[in-house]
Amino acid sequence: MSSVSPTRKDGVKEKLHWMRPSRPLPFQGWTQAAMEKHLRQPRFPKFLLRQFLLLPSSLPTPIQTSGAQHTAKQWKALEDIKAAILKGDSVAELFKQLEQMEKDSAQESVFIRGVKYLHSLQVPVERFKLALDLAAPLTSLEPTTATVFGVVRSVTAIAISFSTADLAFAKQIGEMLEQLSYIDDCDTLGQKAHKGDIHKALVLVYQKLLEFYQAAFDILTRKGVKLIMRAVLDNGHLPAIVSDFLKYAELLRKLVEKATWEIVTDIKEMLYDREIARWLDSGRMSRQNQYHGYLQDVRADKACQFLLTDSKFINWYNAADSRHADSQQLLIIGEMGSGKTVAMAFLIDELRMRNQHQLPQPKVCYHYCQNDGTGRPIYIFSVLILSLLEQLPGLKREFFEWYKRTLVTGIEPAMNFKVLEDWLQRTLGELNRPLFFVINGIDECDKQSRNTILQSLRRLIQKNPRLKILLSSRPEQEILERLSGIGTIAIGTDTTRDVLIVKKAVENRLSDLPDEVKTLVTEQLSRWVQGGAIWTKMTVELIEVRGIGALGPMRTFLNGIPQPGELSELYANLLSRYTLDDPENRRLAITALEILAFTRRPLSILELAWATALGAAAEAVPTVEALSMLVDHRRVMRQIQPFIVQVDFSNLPKRQVKLVHQSVKEFIIMRLGPQSLPLSYSTLSTADHPVVQQRLQSMDRVMLDICTKYLLLHEINNVTLLTEEQLAMGEHPQDCDLFTDDHQRKDYDPFGSWSAHEEDMIHYDPIERGFGEFFVYASCHWVEHFGAIAEASLLPQLKDIELLCRANSTRLHNWIAQNSRPDCTILQRFEFDSTLYDPLRITSLYGSDAMFQHMLENSDLDSNAFLHVPNPAMGTAEQILRWGDLARLKPLWDSKIGHQIQNLDFFRLVIRQWSRSSGKNRPGWDAVSCLVATVLDHMVKGQWGNDLVIMAARAGCMPIIQPLMDHTQHNPGLRTELLGICRSENSTIGEAVLGNHIDVLEHLLAQEGIENHLHHRNCHGENVLHLASRICNPHVLKLLIPHLRDRVYEKDGQNDTVIMRIIMSPAASWDRCEAVEILLSEPRTGEGYWSKDEQQEALQLAARLGEEELCGILRRFGTDTT
Fold first, then answer.
1. Overall pTM surpassing 0.90 (yes/no)
2. Least enclosed by CB within 10 Å: which of 73, 329, 810, 1055?
3. How much is the mean pLDDT over the chain?
């Protein structure tokens, strides 16, 4: 839609058609009063003169009033001229006399002499727009032709002929001839531009023309030919008329120039409109306006009025100017089909209505985001700017000039969101009026676009505190968290609103039905809506398609329509219609819908077509090339069109195909399988029911089969996905410019999308390697479908999984390489080393419990399909500990290869994983504790229990320490192994102290028989308290002191006491002070009594270190020897 308003555009178009002839107005039959009234109006163009000259000879005499004096004179002149002309040949005879009078010897007429005389005065007669041919002027005259053209032409001929009478008169005539050209232009201009001042000036000009014509007529008819030239100047009447004509013509010229300038200005505005529309694609705003108009037609306003009484809306609307972004924004949320979009359309019109009588008048700019690219930031801002320019046309010139200046710099503003935002920020900062920006469906934007838009809107509010933002979205958690500070109105289910929605739908689509039929439809559907606007729309449209009009058939139809839980029956009818009940079409459509129902992300049109072709293939497909011959994406899309969102066929690789509504997925799950489920299972609320669970898993099995079949195609195992050159490129930075000095890597934004982060990275195309369109999805998501299958009867065949995940195979390498690069970037998104995996390890991480158990029991784990370094069980355990569910360790432990991990090396892996920063927070460590209890005798026999408990204490690994210590109370052999003579450098207590593991220390100190480890001294002569002085944690000392009071003043191998070590510790001053105070607070008993020399040495050391507070503590508990 063009941004030029229809009124101004039509006006300019009329002004440009200057030469279009005017339609004459008939005056026959007019009364004298009507004619006088018309003549008083400020317009008297040529077409009126033409009518007067065509009037009968018996003209009524006009009433002589002061307001009509000039018009009466014109009237009298017209009567005289007409009377003379109607004499038949009198004027023609006069023109012949004028042609012949005073011919000189050269046979030159007075007209020719007039032309030459004007030439001698440098009057460019040929350049004027004259009404006659200078070469044969008078012979072509037809004075009996009663037209304005004849009058003007006659005046021109007479004026040139009379120009030789006098020099000054000749100059006047020259100016007069020049001004005559304006009559033709300004006449039409005045009419088309509706300029009253031009019409008024024209009356005056025509009056003088007529007076000149009349005076000349008198001279030619009443004077002798020889006296004509003298009579021209005798009474000065003609020169005076010419002088007045020039004065009025000058006024007319200025008015014409003014009108012309206004037209030029309009043309410039049209140029601005055209260029701005081209730059910003005005079709976008046109589509927005059309969609808004559609919503106006279908919405039920009464169903939306509850929003106006909501306190959050009132507070938002009445909020004073503020730079607090949250108070200036309002969010409308609701589930799909709840009526968010029509509610937003209602609020847009409500804001417009309220704004009409405000000064300055607030402006409302809106945008509807849909799943068709309209949610991109550039698209949204282009529409908002177009809307703002349309409502504030004074901004167009500034925008036009700014855009031109920006283009010169090499930047296309319409392609650069940041540039558009900068202009909008600057412009809004200069506007001193309220503004409303309304954006519907921000959930339709991708995450990056949504974040960009929300951040930009917040910045715009900061620039213009009078800007208010109204948004709508589905209640997605990520959006709600991001907008948690702003007012939110939720659109829920309401019976009253449901009735209003149904009534409006029936009124729009079924208005031609009898009243009793419409009443029946409204009553029946209102009971079943339950907030489902989509359900209402589809049901009413189906009634319209069926053409049901009678009460009986309508009642039968409505009794058979499923309630919301049975919406699948409605979709089944649609499926039959669009597949034309053809078995092949139906099989193809069902396969495509099942794929869409269980894909883990939207598919591209080609991905869906390739997957459907493979899933529906009647025979085995061995190669990618063979599969490509079966693909027909247009056919697939045509069969499922009612069930998917609108797609862009111009962008086939775009991941855009998804189901239109959750109810469609429910229909596919419950109704499109080999056997339909009973009505009692017709909603997804029964998803936990075993029957429903089996159906869900069977659908995942469909997807798994398609994915595994695809990955087992011949080419996937014969060609590597990435070339050596591409792998080498992956070793280099992916997002820095090698040709600039700025080598700083762009940090990953945790709030942004992966697509945005990887946008500037180097990408590859699997299709170029011959892997086809479905390889990316199959590689990335087959493991998700694999893990969803737990029903024994639905488990995939082991041979397929073993072949797909065969150790060191090209196929395994290819799909793992793709899996770690979901968007085909050379650089991996996450670590996934194919050399570490085989079928068992992949199943342990991604398969279900049932599948993992099945493989452990039935696969030949000694075959070459599995890795044997260090051994199948240990390698699998390492992957589980690092990435998987720890509960998977139990079936591995109990399997036929479980003995391979029942040793100290396995627990080293456990402790290593526990030591990772995030390891302690993982669920499932209880499973590890259970494993400890099963190898107690084995560790005692192998004498590695002490080593294990020491390692666990060092790492603070309670899942190992706790079960070990708990079993020592009832297992003397284990107690001796764990708590007997310490065979390590430090005891378990010492390792827990050094590791600062408070929970482990508390647990160990509570154990009976821990004394050996408590009083252990290492090879450096350090007891446990000496070790505690290294970390200087007061909490640790508080735990140890009750058990080691007599060890406080023991000295280590360097002859230092614990207190001296604490004073010299690099720990924080307050920790050292508290630690010393804890130690000195204990009674000074035992062999370790602190001598005065030692006190003095400690005090002097603290003083040298500048520790005044520590010195105070030492003096308070010791002897002050200053």
1. no
2. 1055
3. 79
